[in-house]
Specification:
Blueprint (H helix, E strand, L loop, with lengths): L15 H15 L12 H8 L5 H49 L12 H4 L7 E5 L4 E2 L10 E6 L10 E2 L4 E11 L4 E8 L2 E9 L6 E10 L4 E10 L2 E16 L3
Antiparallel strand pairs: 1-3, 1-10, 2-10, 4-9, 5-8, 5-10, 6-7, 6-9
Helix pairs in contact: 1-2, 1-3
Pfam families: C1q
Main location: secreted
InterPro entries: C1q_dom (IPR001073), Collagen/C1q_domain (IPR050392), Tumour_necrosis_fac-like_dom (IPR008983)
């Protein structure tokens, strides 16, 4: 038996079955069920839905149900994200606590980089030099190439008067030299240590200036001398400005 009324909330008459279906839907949504917890709609509701597809209230209730399901999903995602943030916060607090404990216990901080670290190191004292020629020179065989302009002379080991470097301390040193020849000529020079030749430079080019370079790493005793010498072969012109002589200690050694 069905009981009908002329108007219900301003809408056409609804049967008792219809009213029961609407109330069932609203009660189910108001409890905030998750997707997995959402109870199935009663059979009466399903029957009423099937016969009332064109009813405006059915479409509105269906839309509300969909919005509630989306809200449940969104809240579940937010809850998971919040749990992750809380976990990361606890980890950061543990790191900060450990850093504070290290600071209180006097743990030394890492040494900062210093461009003068080499000069202050016990294994590498501040001994280095660099010099260049300020003018063109015509030399004789076995003459010393005197680089008259000093660029750097840490430790005062190089003499611009003699063109020679004298080792202030025993150690392993590195020496480098570049010689530029005159135009369309050649010149040969050598790196000398205590009258012993250790490296040669050949400089020359056809219809041009030519440069030659070389380097050597050697062990020196305190007082050993190092310089650049002109050899017998080739010409005798050493071009200024581009010709240089440099050296530095790498490691201090015991005498």
């Amino acid at each position: 038996m069905q009981l009908s009324v002329s108007r219900f909330f301003g809408r056409p008459a609804l049967s008792v079955v219809s009213i029961f279906a609407v109330l069932s839907l609203l009660i189910g949504q108001s409890h905030g069920y998750d997707d997995d917890e959402m109870e199935p709609m009663p059979v009466l509701y399903n029957s009423w839905m099937a016969g009332s597809n064109n009813c405006t209230c059915v479409r509105e209730l269906t839309a509300i149900r969909k919005e509630l399901q989306e809200e449940i999903t969104l809240r579940r995602e937010l809850k998971g994200a919040l749990e992750t943030y809380v976990s990361e916060l606890y980890e950061l607090r543990a790191v900060v606590r450990a850093l504070r404990n290290n600071s209180k216990s006097g743990t030394p901080e890492p040494e900062k980089y210093s461009p003068n670290a080499l000069a202050t190191s016990k294994t590498a004292p501040a001994i280095s030099f660099s010099a260049k020629l300020s003018y063109n020179r015509e030399l004789k065989p076995l003459d010393t190439v005197v680089f008259d302009t000093i660029i750097t002379n840490n430790g005062e080991g190089y003499s611009a008067e003699t063109g020679k470097f004298t080792a202030p301390l025993p150690g392993t040193y590195i020496f480098l030299s570049t010689i530029l020849s005159g135009y369309n000529t050649k010149v040969e020079t050598a790196l000398i240590i205590n009258e012993k030749e250790v490296a040669r430079m050949y400089s020359g080019a056809h219809d041009a200036h030519g440069s030659g370079s070389n380097a050597a790493i050697v062990n020196l005793r305190s007082g050993d001398n190092v310089w650049v010498r002109l050899l017998y072969q080739g010409g005798n012109h050493v071009h200024g400005y581009y010709s240089t002589f440099s050296g530095a200690i790498l490691t201090e050694l015991e005498q």
